[in-house]
Amino acid sequence: MDEQVLHALNGLMMRHDDLRSFVVAYVVAAPYFICGLVAVTFLLGKRPSRRGAVTAGLGAVAAVSVAQIVTALVDRARPFVADPLVHVFIHHGPDRSFPSDSASAAFAIATALLIYKPRLGWVMLALAVALGVGRIAVGMHYPTDILAGVLLGAGVSTLLRTRPPRLAIERLAELLGRAVPWPSLRR
């Protein structure tokens, strides 16, 4: 099933130049765009938004850290390395692919924002899903790499909502909010 979904999406990229251009551009830009939205959420938001943004940032860092440990333990080559039928459309090193760091971070961010700012969280979830599907389509990941990143990212941000980390994050968000240099942005 992993290979079937990968080949179907990757084949679609081979046959449709305009779609490929759009997906490649999105996959390259999405991590910056998502991080930018988190920063804007923190800078322009009130208390719940700031808490969500801080949880999103910490969740992304923690999820990628755990993903790196798992990656070191699981020796899974990227699809474009392991399968000569897969075309890669974005330059990437031939490192290990399981789980996806990008999916881990994106879904940690989306989950944190779903908890604190549901409307923004749904937007982030859509962006994260598009990023995951795009990374499969361009030949960088298997679907199960993305699925593992989804579970890891969502799990980490959910754990950050438990009482001890949540209280520490709320305090950190308040302190960081006071450090915003523009008084009109402090709320």
Overall description:
43% of the residues are buried. This protein has helices at residues 2-15, 17-44, 47-73, 79-82, 101-116, 118-137, 143-159, 163-178. It is mainly alpha-helical. The chain has one domain (2-88, 101-179). Helix content is 76%, strand content 0%. The model has no long low-confidence stretch (mean pLDDT 92).
| Helix and strand pattern | HHHHHHHH
Low-confidence stretches: none
Largest sheet: none
**Residue share in helices?**
over 70%
- State the end-to-end distance: 49 Å
Rough shape? elongated
Radius of gyration: 18 Å
Indicate how many domains the architecture comprises: 1
Strand content: under 5%
Number of strands: 0
Number of continuous helical runs: 8
**Structural class of the helices, strands and pairings?**
mainly alpha
Mean pLDDT, as a whole number?
A: 92
What order do the helices and strands come in, and which of them pair?
Elements: H1 2-15, H2 17-44, H3 47-73, H4 79-82, H5 101-116, H6 118-137, H7 143-159, H8 163-178
